[in-house]
Amino acid sequence: MLIALTSRTPATVVLWGGGFLVLLLTLGGTQIRRGIGGAFRPPVMAGTVTAALGFAFLGVQPLSETVGFADIPSLVNGLILLVLVIGLARSAIAILLKPRVALVVDESGPRDSAQSASPTVVVALGADLRQDPGAVAAAVVPVVEDNDITHVEIGCEIDPEAATELSWRLRRRRVPVALRLGTTALSAGRAHVISHPGRPALVVEPPEPSLAVRGAKRAFDIVVAAALVLVLSPVMIAVALAIVITMPGPVLFFQERIGKDGVPFRIMKFRSMIVDADAALARLLAEQQTDGTPLFKVANDPRITRLGAFLRRYSLDELPQLFNVLGGSMSLVGPRPQRAEEVALYTGTADHRLGVLPGMTGLWQVSGRSDLSWEQAQELDVYYAHNWSLGFDLVILCRTFNAVVRAAGAV
Questions:
Q1: DSSP code of 150?
Q2: Tell me: the pLDDT tens digits for 100-138?
Q3: DSSP 15
Q4: Distance, CA of 137 to CA of 82 (rounded, Å)
Q5: Which residues lie below 8 Å from residue 256, measured CB to CB, with a gap of 6+?
């Protein structure tokens, strides 16, 4: 109908509109996928192929009397409008209609349904059943049919043939089967599937952006940090004067931290604690029994002064780190730099956070700051180290402003 409104020839409507609908159905146009990309992919692909085939057909066999090249602009406009309308409609449907997910788990393992869209039906299978393709399908397919399930997620190890059999048995209902990965540090943009007969493989791209992207990040850091130093210089002068008046001792606090690739550097902050505060750190950590955790945070820290508490609440003590950014030892966005004693306690993948420049703010800070445990903070920092991009940095910077204003998780 949309193409008919923009085209003057009935044959054009039949040729282009019919071809578009056939290709849309062929490319999975009836299956609603969450996300803008998933919603627009089938219409865009169908529209592109339809236009290419249409132009090729007209080039081989011009239909000047029935269609006419003069009608091409209206054809293209109508096709673009059709793609936009269908893509937006699919996005709206995906947002309004919450998917129902059947999560297949190990009956003897932990039940982790938090990462699945709700409502979720959990199907627990024993080890013997998970190795039998027929048994897996027999257990899951009735659950899908009885609960009007739209997606199936495999959250445990199953026989590869079982996944193939389950997908085949669900083909009539067009229910996709998702195989979860064991890692939480991988974004969708770094993974793609290659298919060889009998041996498909998931390819994970290396977590290292190109030289151009890294150069753009460094240029962004320099420009923004310099601008912030100019804009916030009155604030920094006011903070320095307040420290001189209310807190005997130096204005700035320097401390050795571990930066990218394990290289130490001196971090700069406004002093928010009493003089020689580090001397009491080991005792305070031992008293609260957290000296074995790679996150040296003291609850209700008695070393923090009244002015220091205010500075920390609104992250004003971090402002001198803009000079660290200008010097290249830090970035605006990245994992927070830690002491050598904390780094020495790293286990597992925690050292991945050292693969990027430490930052003034990061995914950990905008997701809860000190309200998070070390395990949660480590997971967020490792995810960032594996998947950072300029767009991701901009999102984190925008969220930083909100986190600072709300002072969520500040200490």
A1: S
A2: 888 888 877 655 544 444 557 888 888 888 888 888 888
A3: I
A4: 39
A5: 264, 265, 266, 267, 339, 340
Q: Is the backbone peptide bond immediately before 119 cis, with ω within 30 degrees of 0?
A: yes
Rounded Cα distance, 284 and 219, in Å: 41
Q: Are strands 120-125 and 177-179 parallel, antiparallel or unpaired?
A: unpaired
Amino acid at 273: M
What does the alpha-carbon distance between residue 267 and residue 286 come to, in Å, rounded to a whole number? 25
Cα–Cα distance, 303 to 308 (Å, whole number) = 9
Cα 408 to its chain centre, rounded Å, is: 21
Rounded Cα distance, 340 and 259, in Å: 10
Distance CA 176, CA 187 (A): 20
Q: Give dist(CA 178, CA 309) in Å, integer.
A: 47
Which ranges constitute the DSSP H helices of 247-320?
A: 281-287, 306-313
In a 3-state reduction of DSSP, which class is residue 218?
Answer: helix
pTM above threshold 0.85:
no
- For the record, the structure tokens of 141 come out as 């397919």
Q: Which of 332, 314, 336 has the alpha carbon at shortest distance from 323?
A: 332
- 133 contacts 161 by C-beta, under 8 angstroms: yes
Cα dihedral 201, 202, 203, 204 sign: negative
* Burial call 291-329: b when 16+ CB within 10 Å, e when fewer: eeebbbebeebebbbebbebbbeebbbbbbbbebbeeeb
Spatial separation of the C-alpha atoms in residues 3 and 51, rounded to whole Å: 13
Burial class (CB in 10 A: 0-12, 13-18, 19+), 69: exposed
267: phi then psi, degrees, rounded to nearest 5: -90, 150
Q: What are phi and psi of 11, to 5 degrees?
A: -60, -35
**Rounded distance, CA 15 to CA 119, Å?**
42
The 10s digit of each residue's pLDDT in 4-52 is 555 555 666 666 667 776 666 665 555 655 556 667 777 777 777 777 7
**Please, which residues have CB within 8 angstroms of residue 243's CB and are 6 or more apart in sequence?**
251, 270, 271, 307
